[in-house]
């Protein structure tokens, strides 16, 4: 393996671990003399991870918000979905200047959250700070800056007439959601924030039993630097090559499914770049963790095609070219109703008949 020169990973380091960077590159970062191999230790257990890392300061406040949100919507008879969205970072220094990032703009999560809200679900939207969010996603980030839709004249500032109809629909939905109080947004930055927040949320939401759904669209780091091995200060560039040894992040789906929330309806995502690997990797995840659905997607086609893999079958949701490019249909508008239908079946099977297998 060629070792990347420090200059290639120095400065504002925002390399992608499992969203787009090939694994061999990650491994070469983990030290030339000790490449990850079959003899490498596996991930630490979730239990060991939580015992040896510090929870984010915002956790107690967020827990309180989740608790009152869940209590209220349980009381009002709404189903709750927890949507995770965006990528997690892995800091290289405690006082972080550099970090490794995961690919995800948050489009999948933010778009899906809107369709869940439309279908009457209460949504806990757990997202990477500054990634796309429901409703505002239509007018944020570089391609859709809201200023592009505005004009100024003697009467003040207005939305340009060509955009009014579309913006009115989005604004109305946004206001309705605000009024109903059906959207709770919580943010994370690092993989550590994500792991603690997901555990806390799951333990609170578990009281909803089969009526809760998890839609795990976030791109979660697979490797991290344990807190006790992280440099406190900015890593200096005068010392030549930078070799990093990273450990595997515990697979959080395991305790989620088995311990924290065993009766919830859980959907995870699998992102691959090689189409040939996708069915096998998705099925492997399903068997390993025992949850209900894996949604497989390929990086380059993820907005047009997804595969839904369950223990019994595999199906596909695919937009035609016309639907995608002319009608601008969002694939999430097909994914979400299908999942809601399957969640209802799960409630019937697991909740009513006790067949939770
Ligand atoms: O946001 P966009 O730009 O629209 O992109 C959307 C997406 C491509 C990021 C999304 O559709 C997607 O595929 N998300 C999952 C990407 C991913 O990296 O999967 P993974 O192979 O790291 O993890 C698979 C599943 O295992 C995930 O559901 C994750 O929640 C779970 N996981 C991952 C790591 C870890 N330590 N523990 C886990 O349980």
TrEMBL record:
Residues 79-134, 201-329 form the DNA/pantothenate metabolism flavoprotein C-terminal domain. One of its GO terms (biological process) is coenzyme A biosynthetic process. It holds the Pfam family DFP. One of its GO terms (molecular function) is phosphopantothenate--cysteine ligase activity. Belongs to the PPC synthetase family. PANTHER family: CORNICHON-RELATED. This is DNA/pantothenate metabolism flavoprotein C-terminal domain-containing protein. It comes from Entomortierella chlamydospora. The lineage of its organism: Eukaryota, Fungi, Fungi incertae sedis, Mucoromycota, Mortierellomycotina.
